[in-house]
Known about the structure:
The structure holds two protein chains of two kinds.
Chain A: E1 9-13, E2 18-23, E3 31-38, E4 45-50, E5 55-56, E6 61-64, E7 70-75, E8 84-92, E9 106-111
Parallel strand pairs in A: 1-9
Antiparallel strand pairs in A: 2-7, 3-4, 3-8, 5-6, 6-7, 8-9
Chain B: E1 5-7, E2 10-13, E3 19-24, E4 31-37, E5 44-50, E6 53-56, E7 65-68, E8 75-79, E9 88-95, E10 105-106, E11 110-114
Amino acid sequence: xxxxxxxxxxxxxxxxxxxxxxxxxxxxxxxxxxxxxxxxxxxxxxxxxxxxxxxxxxxxxxxxxxxxxxxxxxxxxxxxxxxxxxxxxxxxxxxxxxxxxxxxxxxxxxxx
Amino acid sequence: xxxxxxxxxxxxxxxxxxxxxxxxxxxxxxxxxxxxxxxxxxxxxxxxxxxxxxxxxxxxxxxxxxxxxxxxxxxxxxxxxxxxxxxxxxxxxxxxxxxxxxxxxxxxxxxxxxx
Lengths: 112, 115
């Protein structure tokens, strides 16, 4: 079973920041937080991941609380093309390449 | 860099027929995954390979599903005989092994409709 809890859906106005929360209260010390998004009719796309520190790349920022029990994915300037299902996943990274266990994700709707 | 390739992209079959899906992972990726995604749900892991060995197939319905990864590169997923509830998108993914936070990359998926 997925070890994360996300809201089922969220709305965001185009050009505004989209903040997607995720709870992972049972996360272990060696588990990373991953975010993927899935646009209809496409495979999941990697966005960002982190262990303890906040992370930023060209797609998004990831803010992880100090106790690591929750995190927030931030899309700084949402566009209509950001409308998708966003999955927050915790995953151990080890030599065997642990699989991703998906939950139901958050459906983000960006409107003009 | 080429991504994960899958074929066919779409397939419609009648129940009790068979179907096979093919996957070519990203070059150099030793770990390969097959996921099943039913409409409205998140992807569910069916089987995971490392090179040509099976790491996890606990969720694979072995009475009708089979998968192989000969030579540790390409993989095929077969369903025989298909049931209506097998209608789904079958996603292939791959990753490197080892290292911190090794990312998993997905293909576009193969859409199966069983009628």
